[in-house]
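Protocol check, entry for the methods section draft. Step 1: assemble the input record (protein sequence plus ligand SMILES). Step 2: submit for complex structure prediction. Step 3: store the structure tokens unaltered in the notebook. Ligand used here: flavin-adenine dinucleotide. Step 1 record:
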Amino acid sequence: MKEKSHVIITGAGPVGCVSALILAKAGIHVTLLEAENDLPLDMRASTFHPPTLDMLEELGVVSEIIKQGLITPKFQYRDRADGLVAEFDMSAIAEHTNHPYRVQAEQYKLTRIISGILADYPHVNQKFSSKALSLEQDDNSVTVYYETNGETESITADYLISCDGSRSFARKSLDIGFPGFTYPELFMVVSTKDEITDVVPDMCPVAYITDPEEWCAVIRAPEMWRFLIPTNPEMSEEELLDEDFLESRIQGFAPKSEKYTVSHSTLYPVNQRVAETYRKGRVLLAGDAAHVNNPLGGMGMNGGVHDGVNIAKKLVQILNNKESEKLLDLYDRQRRPIAVEYVQAHSIRNKKIMEEKDPKIRRQRQDEIRAVRDNSDKSFELMMQVSMINSINKSNATA
Ligand SMILES: Cc1cc2nc3c(=O)[nH]c(=O)nc-3n(C[C@H](O)[C@H](O)[C@H](O)COP(=O)(O)OP(=O)(O)OC[C@H]3O[C@@H](n4cnc5c(N)ncnc54)[C@H](O)[C@@H]3O)c2cc1C
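Step 3, stored output:
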């Protein structure tokens, strides 16, 4: 039996949790299906950009994520050989956000905070060990079949938001294309709890270091410093994950005589892909289910949360205020081009800049970024762009 005003969400990642909270606050029944037996402890995204923080403020969870995170107003562009190139301070965009800084906090902190709040809503059903398998839909409802404790069960609702990550069961079930490409090299994150500013005193908590052989994005999370680097496709995973090799990666960016203690490492393939549509009937794709990109610029989870907020608010308008389902197509028009023209374009460009081999072009790029730093209009524009405020403004302006 279909309940009234009921939305199924598959995946209790950051996008699924944020979407569920918006619907729950509006009194809509939510079933959140999560394949794992608990919230995943993902060492993945760790950057919350200003507009995402503004959205989390509206949901009443920003103070907790700030409490568990690290406020970082500044970011740097550096070169491995030449050191600091330019530093930017996001306080310059304070008129456009309540949070003119990034907060560094791991994504699992957000899902834990929200899941705890959802537990208090009687009309929210968080079902773990429940893996969505397939779906059926007609003009009035959508039914999701899922596996739990070795049995297949089903649930029917008004709409489904598929937030179940890059392998989205719904995208596959509905045969929605996911064109793009996979980088030949694996990316690696090596983390240490050792203090990097003891070795490189001017290293900012967010620093992009260009190098023709081995570029690096340095991110300080609250508990550790994380180094995101490319790997050599000719090396085996065993060689890449060798402890001495991992330690030597950190030495390469912050050399010291003692050894670093490696606290954590991850090796993963990176794709640049956007789904051909974000809507098919009563099924909506959001987050990694709809788009994936390299982590340079921290736009994956942030862009996904922006999708989740957009579509959840539209479903509230449709289900509670009887607004037209045309809003679902507007969701696609507002969010898909952002993924293609903004997130894909910038993340691909960021990687090209980081790994540029031609010394002349590298110098030219360094001169350009210094010129941006020295021009207040240009540096304001850069910060509006990297903070993702421009992308939100563009998305909201699309009718
Ligand atoms: C190393 C790394 C660093 C990153 N750094 C950043 C960063 O700094 N900033 C940023 O914005 N992004 C970053 N990203 C990207 C970011 O992690 C993702 O974009 C983000 O997790 C997407 O959130 P999501 O909720 O869409 O999907 P996910 O976080 O992938 O969550 C999907 C959930 O769905 C569940 N699930 C899967 N299949 C099913 C199913 N069939 N049924 C039910 N449940 C299912 C999964 O268990 C999971 O809990 C990084 C990624 C990596 C790998």
